[in-house]
Amino acid sequence: MKTTILITGTSRGIGKALAVHFLSQGATVIGSSRKTQSELAHYPNFFSLKLDLSNPESRVNAALRVKENFDSIDMLINNAGIGPDIDHCSPSESHLENTLSVNLMGTILFTEELIDHITLRGKIINISSKMGSITFCEKSDSVAYRVSKTALNMYTQILSVRVKKGLAIAAVHPGWVKTSFAPSNINGRLTATEAAQKIYDFVRSSFKSGIFWDVETNQEIPW
Ligand SMILES: NC(=O)c1ccc[n+]([C@@H]2O[C@H](COP(=O)([O-])OP(=O)(O)OC[C@H]3O[C@@H](n4cnc5c(N)ncnc54)[C@H](OP(=O)(O)O)[C@@H]3O)[C@@H](O)[C@H]2O)c1
Question: Which stretches of the chain score pLDDT less than 50?
Fold first, then answer.
């Protein structure tokens, strides 16, 4: 597969499993972390990128490094995210600040740095969450996290309106996945490898741009 994919947050969890899946299919993967990533370094087609989404200088430097090393990228998968207030009842200032700076501002501004570097028929996938669906909201917990994903969904829709032809944009719910994301994820229904396979199948399909898709149940989610 002669494709170059940038995945944010490949040091663990879903992003790492997704990187491994794309790498094993022969794609070139640019994978980001705030740390040095030694576990994927043995793949000759893996390019390690230092990126802290909450830090403006880091975002600009990371985007520059991508542009210096790759003529273009075929897909941007905005996977990196945090959920420090998952299952907390009321929001704190620090949870709101941190969550919004990574899941929302950082993700938007990093995408804006790179959008002109994505090939004409390329794709942008925002790893969102069903917890960001306004229609499905029946609980009052995880305020910062839910709000960050709802707003990320809006950005997904804005992008799909802005680019109209060419790029395909989607928000994806990966399912409830066993990762170290939050303490409750220990009970997740899917392994990271299973979720990665489902995300892979979706992103390789010719999905309708501007869609919010649940890869666990294979159906569209109402915003
Ligand atoms: N697990 C689930 O059940 C579930 C359900 C719905 C949606 N999601 C979404 O799926 C995505 C991945 O979740 P996961 O469960 O795989 O989480 P995870 O295992 O905690 O991995 C999160 C990734 O995000 C990166 N990251 C954290 N802070 C960052 C920052 N400031 N700048 C850049 N990267 C940062 C981490 O890299 P470093 O710490 O190495 O920088 C790590 O690679 C998230 O967007 C999450 O909201 C997960």
Answer: none
